[in-house]
Amino acid sequence: MRMIDLKDLSVVYSENRSALSHVTLHVEKGEFVFLVGPTGAGKSTMLKVLYREECDIQGMVKVMGFDIPSMHPRDVPKLRRSMGVVFQDFGLLPNKTVFENVAFALRVIGAGRREIRSKTPEALDMVGMTHRCDAFPNQLSWGEQQRVAIARALVNRPSLFIADEPTGNLDPDTSMGIASILEDINSTGTTVIVATHDKHIVDALCKRVVAFNHGCIVRDDPNGRYDIEEKPQVS
To answer: Do 121 and 182 sit in the same domain of this protein?
Structure first.
């Protein structure tokens, strides 16, 4: 079973506006895929389809065996418990410490105290934030906040990790540190999908690059770079 299996996927908001148009994409378990392209190309919409935030879907969409278009709303939490998602705005709870922010992701799915005490330090250690576990978000740098957001997404040991512009507000050195964490996540067998404008991390990691433009896939390179001449995908 593929991790992600899309065929002829379209997301149409109106007759004059199509966010995604006839997209076919297959991602195997354990792959690392960058989604690149200009603003408005369809990258974020693609991610929303994967975690079932976007519902105006046409075509076949299967994620971890879930049939996304026909999914009943009550089954969406089950899908999301199998994935970790990092958003552009971090979404940290300002009145909770670093430890509490990460542990909260386990509490909302009903994890017990012993599991929380075991998994939370492991996730913080993976992103190098154990030493700031008692700090509050407003005491952290942007890069530290992003690391905490990643730890929170990882704490339930998801099969699929999705990140939307994880280095968008970071300086180049900090961005490369986040890129290294993403590689470490992938090395454990987790499938990683990252939408980004960050040319430096894409070129440094040399992973699969899927380029979007005007809602269509225009390039799919197994070991790609950010900027090359893009040619329309041949179905």
So the answer is: no
Query: What's the pTM?
Result: 0.91
Count of CB atoms situated within 10 Å of the CB of 234? 4
Strand partners, 194: 34, 163
Structure tokens at 135: 């700090």
Structurally, the chain folds into a number of domains equal to 2
Helix (H, G, I), strand (E, B) or coil at 75: helix
Give the model confidence (pLDDT) of 119-169 as tens digits.
999 999 999 999 999 999 999 999 999 999 999 999 999 999 999 999 988
Q: Is residue 88 part of a domain?
A: no
Q: Is residue 87 part of a domain?
A: no
Q: Please give the full DSSP string across 88-137, using - where no structure is assigned.
A: TT----TTS-HHHHHHHHHHTTT--HHHHHHHHHHHHHHTT-GGGTT--G
- Residues 172, 219: one domain? yes
CB contact set of 17 (below 8 Å; sequence gap of 6+)? none
CB burial string 191-221: b at 16+ within 10 A, e below: bbbbbbebeebbeebebbbbbbbebbbebee
